[in-house]
Structures are given as structure tokens and as C-alpha cells.
Amino acid sequence: MTQERDAISPREQEALERAFAAARDAAPPLSAALEAAILRDAVQAAAPRRAVGTPVPWWRGLWQGLGGWPAGAALASAATLGIALGYGGAKPLAGIGDVLLDSGQTASAEDGLEDALYAGYDLALLEDEG
């Protein structure tokens, strides 16, 4: 703990002021060697520095090549959807063909996603042949 100290007497205060004033007035001169060393350091500090590159790890270059965090998030989302569709199958998406192709034909869950998506192409194949 700190101890409380009595205030400095005016006599001590005056002695301190005289000592500080004398110290401010009598600045010691710099030696020639010290001044030369200070100037040498100043020139080195002011000189332009050459950028030193550190090698970039291969995975960081790949990550930047993919596009960084936004592309990584999109890639992770696409991979998750691919795993979910591969594991669960595409039967829940069987009616999406009507929405995508607007063919007017209805598809049931038993028809499968392929029949729903390619239903509008039958007419196109017939037109090409004839």
C-alpha cells in the first residue's frame, strides 16, 4: 500500500525548482561520435526499404484463387446440397420440372425427376427428325 506523504514545504519546493532550472539551462553538449551515430541512424531510417516477401503457402494461394471466403462458402453449400441429394435421392424434387420448363404437363413422384425435367424435349426431338 502507498503511504501518505506530507506536502512539500515551500523551502523544499524552492530548492527543487532551482535544481530543475539549473538542469534545464545546462544541457551537456553532444560528442562528435554520438552526433555522427544519430545522423547515421536517421539516414538509415529515412532510406526507402525494399519489400521482403515471405513465401505464401500453397493452400493460401489456392484459397485466393478460388475467390476467398465468399467462394468457399458457396462451394461448401454446393457440396452439402450434393451430399444431401446423393444420400436422400431426388424424389422430393419430382415436381420441379413443371416450374422450370412450364410444360403444362404434371409429373407425379413416381415419374421421377428425369421425366419431369425432360418432358418438354420430346416435341423438340420430333421436330428435328421430321
Give an overview in words:
About 60% of the residues lie in helices and about 0% in strands. By secondary structure, the chain is mostly helical. Among the domains are: about 60-90, no CATH class; about 90-130, no CATH class. The longest helix is centred in the middle third of the chain and has 20 residues, at about 70-90.
Overall, the morphology is: elongated
Based on DSSP secondary structure assignment, what is the total number of beta strands? 0
- Are there runs of 5+ residues with pLDDT below 50, and where? none
What about the largest sheet? none
How many helices does DSSP assign? 7
Mean pLDDT: 76
How do the SSEs run, as a string of H and E?
HHHHHHH
Return the structural class.
Answer: mainly alpha
Strand content: under 5%
Helix content: 55-70%
Rg over CA atoms: 41 Å
Oligomerization state: single chain
What distance lies between the first and last C-alpha atoms, to the nearest angstrom? 104 Å
Main features:
single chain; mainly alpha; 0% strand; 7 helices; 130 residues
Summarize the structure.
The chain contains seven helices and no strands. The protein is an all-alpha fold and 130 residues long.
